[in-house]
Amino acid sequence: MSIHIGAPEGAIASRVLLPGDPLRARFIAENYLEGAECYNEVRGMYGYTGTYKGERISVQGTGMGMPSHAIYVHELINSYGCKTLIRVGSCGSIQEDVKIRDVVMGISSSTNSSMATQRLNGMNFAPTADWDLIAKASEVAKTMGLNMKAGNILSSDSFYDENPESWKLWAKYGVMAVEMEAAALYTLAARFGVKALCLLTVSDSLVTKEETTSEEREKTFTQMMELALETAIGVEA
Ligand code: HPA
Of 8, 13, 164, 236, which is most buried, counting CB atoms within 10 Å of its CB? Predict the structure, then answer.
């Protein structure tokens, strides 16, 4: 038991997929995992454990934004001993060549959040994904014929910004897309010595204002899920 996850010791696998939406966690468990059992319902933030191709895998909802995400990641690592954490989420593109429905891998994450600078006495940390997971995901994406984009993403503290054009400054620095969690995940993974990766599907474009339909989101999400699951079982837990 931890404060926000009501699971007994041993109920959560070493490899965990992390969607923001708890209903996505349920969808993944029902559609991809064999023998999935729900281990958490606290705050409706569902968590399930089952097997994928014979390997034990968990999937845990984390909510939106870095403070919520960080609570689940901290407890998964420190109370349940989880070692491989892969976020599966959505993002908004801020580059012309990053199209809606594309899959994006965050090699690193810039941020406007002060969570990491608070931890490091005002200094800047460069949140970075785990190399083994980056390499494995690139390999799996190629095998799947996926045109995955990889690079720097932005983890933002706000969805509705005071200045709706603030993303343009990040875009000038080559940042590909905006989401709201990866920087916290990468920072905590580094602090506690575990592997982390953030995989995203582009749900909307801040450049062209296009948005995916819910049916399209379902389909692209499926490709990203397969990529995440194959990546998770492809590295040492
Ligand atoms: N901003 C932040 N997070 C997001 C967005 C966005 O435009 N789209 C999907 N996740």
Answer: 13
